[in-house]
Amino acid sequence: MQDILHAPDTGPLSADARSVSRPVIDIRDLSLTFETNDGPVHALSNIDLTIGKGDFVSFIGPSGCGKTTLLRVIADLEQKTGGEITVNSTTPENARLDRSYGYVFQAAALYPWRTIEKNIALPLEIMGLSKAEQRARIDKVLALVELSDFGKKFPWQLSGGMQQRASIARALAVEPDLLLMDEPFGALDEIVRDHLNDQLHQLWAKTNKTVVFVTHSIPEAVYLSTKIVVLCPRPGRIYDVIDSTLPRERTLDMRESEEFLKIAHRVREGLKAGHSYED
Amino acid sequence: MTRSSPLSRLAAGTTLPVVTVVLAIIALWYVAAVALNTPFQRDTYERAGQTDVPMSLLITDTLTQKRPVLPAPHQVLEEIWDTTVNKAVTSKRSLVYHAWITLSTTLLGFVIGTSLGILLAVGIVHSGVLDKSLMPWIITSQTIPILAIAPMIIVVLNSIGVTGLLPKAMISTYLSFFPVTVGMVKGLRSPEIIHLDLMHTYSATRLETFFKLRLPYALPYLFTSMKIGIASSLVGAIIGELPTGAVAGLGARLLAGSYYGQTTQIWSALLMASLLAGVLVGVIGLIERSVLKRMGMAS
């Protein structure tokens, strides 16, 4: 991962090239209402959002704002009740069937009876890839998340941070252009989190994947994102969309810069406004 | 310490309690044997006109009766030795022969029962209709006393021409499918939502989800159920041997023993049956350990 700063072959596209390409995710007036015994719950309402190729988009907001639900709608794990959504110019279901995204859950969700390698092989087995192809991909993604020496270990032999890296490797093995991540570092301590944020940023910069990232950490969102979507609850809706003015290449010490703090401030204001609406 | 010598195990506190319990059981057994056999012994003395029999003679006599109410442990062991080592295994008087008959019934019934249990569980987990329609009957089936239904199963199967091992194995199946069904339903339903969601994001088919997620998850449950199932299966096999007219098997030995008041024969058959159950459960435990170890889940 050290060679990342030296001209990766699939470098970041120029801003112009990105804006003319078709959106990876296009959401128009989307809503999702759960029918419960206490009446309908409006988990999402009037969501309008466009995510372009190579974007790193964070959903941030307090609990119950629908950020995870929105990610799950994109992944076809929840069904919308109104509006339009396309993923890779098709329905979320078709996108899922095409295996066009990799999903990283809040917990590593590794299968305890499979070694790290075998866990990564799981989606590849289901895709019906040859043993040789599986092997090649496993080695590649293990190197990418710096776990090459741990392929033969069982999940319980790894720390929480390493398990989460393994689960990211598993999502990457599918070689999706789109990565959906639901608070992947939420359960980790601050130091490990910083390290993984840095790794994720470099991975994204190197591969030019589109990433949709759910978090409730302001520094994490500002550090990683090209676009920050602030959501607020009841009904879950978008309060603010902030296009980051930070350069695409980022370093951890950028978090002290004035630019960074300005964006962080706007996110915080958005979160506050969303809350005060409540009580 | 590289090897665990008996002394070190004693010090570690595993051997001593085990030996103590075993000795206590044997001692209790002897006391009970003397107490239960004394009335008959006193009658014998009275009829023979013997009086003032010393206590030591009374005790030795109660432990060496031909048809005691409760045979002493050494009498049972003698009988087992006599009917295993001293008899050809093909002989109808060999306990090994009878144990083998019961064992084959047990294993056949267990294999059918376990397969049936797994099949039912798979159906129940994948279909709400099957869950609602089958589960009450499965539970009801186990509330019927097996002693009452066993002769009917044997008679019905005999009347349609099914004889030999199979009717008896059906009783074993009847008892052993239940724990396997219940355990497997629980096991197949135990994967976490997050794991099921993961399979959904991979667009895995139901079959793939079953073999790659549900089945591995259910294996520890399956082994636990199978341990209960095989013990029940042995009980079923013995019960199945009772109504067939006591031809062969440990059940037949029990019945024949009670016909002729051969209590030592009954107890030796009982001891053999519990030995068999212990070995069978132990074998499943060994398979469980090696399978789970390979899956990285052994404790």
Radius of gyration of chain A: 19 Å
Distance from N terminus to C terminus of chain A (CA atoms, Å) equals 47 Å
Number of helices of chain B: 12
Percent helix range of chain A: 25-40%
CATH topology of the largest domain in chain A: Rossmann fold
Count of separate structural domains of chain A: 2
In round numbers, the mean pLDDT of chain B is 88
CATH class of the largest domain in chain A: Alpha Beta
Largest sheet geometry of chain A: 6 strands, mixed
CATH superfamily of the largest domain in chain A: P-loop containing nucleotide triphosphate hydrolases
Low-confidence stretches of chain B: none
Main sheet specs of chain B: none
Shape of chain A: globular
Q: What's the name of the CATH homologous superfamily of the largest domain in chain B?
A: MetI-like
CATH second-level architecture of the largest domain in chain B:
Orthogonal Bundle
Cα end-to-end separation of chain B: 23 Å
**Element-level helix/strand string of chain A:** HEEEHEHEHHHEHEHEEH
Task: Assess the beta-strand content of chain B as a share of residues.
Answer: under 5%
Across the major sheet of chain A, the strand order is 5-6-7-3-8-9
- Which strand-content bin applies to the residues of chain A? 15-25%
Structural class of chain A: alpha/beta
